[in-house]
Amino acid sequence: MFLSIDAGNSNIVFGFYDNGSQTWKYEHRVETKREVSVNKLAKDLQLFFLEMGLKPIQVKQIGISSVVPEINRTLISLSESFFNITPHFINEHSYSSVNILTTRPAEMGTDLMANAVAAFEAHRSACIIVDFGTALTFTVISDKGEIIGVNIVPGLKTALKSLFRNTSKLPEVKLELPTSAIGKNTIHSIQAGILYGYSGLVKGMLQTIQQELSMDFTIIATGGLSEILTNLKDTFDYIDRDLTLKGIKIIAERN
């Protein structure tokens, strides 16, 4: 199996690609904590392996993307001690063949690069990747596979947490799209405001990008929250929750 580790600000995702079935067969998520130890992650993975009937020796190769520098060394040590594998830790040199047209290419997150590589590998066309994570990002790719640029907005959960932290009387609510865009009580009002508001944001951003560049794009949604906004189903050509994991695998194998 190939193991893709995607360390984001909210979760560390362990995605296991089974070479026999050629599918992402197993996925394990843990909350991202800056002070997490190798032993804590190893015990967590050991329990997951017992539940799934897996053994560490089944993993033959590991690729890591991390946007949380505080845990980088921990993830490398975990790979070496638990799996006895030296991982490929993705950095700006891992995709030197990809032309990045931003003013500071080295600042681009490795997760976004993994998305871009996987999307262009699959579709070979101009793409916009909408990643619903801690941040909501729009990565724009040309029909030559160039990274034209990225837009970043606070993610759905980030926006909700900000609302709860800065107001005294508003309750926490589930991220569920209500049937009506007009709120009838406090919970409904928050759900309608955030979720229909973000739906409009996504549609408007995509329309503006395409108008500015005068191009048609393949629109791909990814990220753990990509399926919540069901009213955007017709806006996306594809929804691929495993896009980042796929990109990590491609980049690691090429290196």
Structure, briefly:
The protein has 255 residues and is an alpha/beta fold.
What features would you describe in this structure?
The protein is an alpha/beta fold. It has helices at 38-52, 72-82, 110-123, 156-165, 186-213, 243-254; strands at residues 2-7, 11-18, 23-31, 61-66, 88-89, 127-132, 135-141, 147-154, 218-222, 238-239. The strands form 2 sheets. Strands 3-2-1-4-5 form a 5-stranded mixed beta sheet, sandwiched between helices. Strands 8-7-6-9-10 form a 5-stranded mixed beta sheet, sandwiched between helices. The mean pLDDT is 91. Helix 1 crosses helix 2 (72-82) and helix 3 (110-123) packs across helix 6 (243-254).
Write the layout of secondary structure elements.
Layout: E1 2-7, E2 11-18, E3 23-31, H1 38-52, E4 61-66, H2 72-82, E5 88-89, H3 110-123, E6 127-132, E7 135-141, E8 147-154, H4 156-165, H5 186-213, E9 218-222, E10 238-239, H6 243-254
Parallel strand pairs: 1-4, 4-5, 6-9, 9-10
Antiparallel strand pairs: 1-2, 2-3, 6-7, 7-8
Helix pairs in contact: 1-2, 3-6
Structural class by helix and strand composition: alpha/beta
Q: Which quaternary structure do these chains form?
A: single chain
Which sheet architecture does the biggest sheet show? 5 strands, mixed
Shape assignment:
globular
What share of the residues lie within helices? Answer: 25-40%
What is the count of DSSP helices, taking H or I runs of 4+ residues? 6
Strand fraction equals 15-25%
Overall average pLDDT = 91
Q: How many beta-strand runs?
A: 10
Give the distance, in angstroms, between the N- and C-terminal Cα atoms.
17 Å
Query: What topology, given as strand order, has the largest sheet?
Result: 3-2-1-4-5
- Indicate the low-confidence ranges by residue numbers: none
Rg from Cα:
19 Å
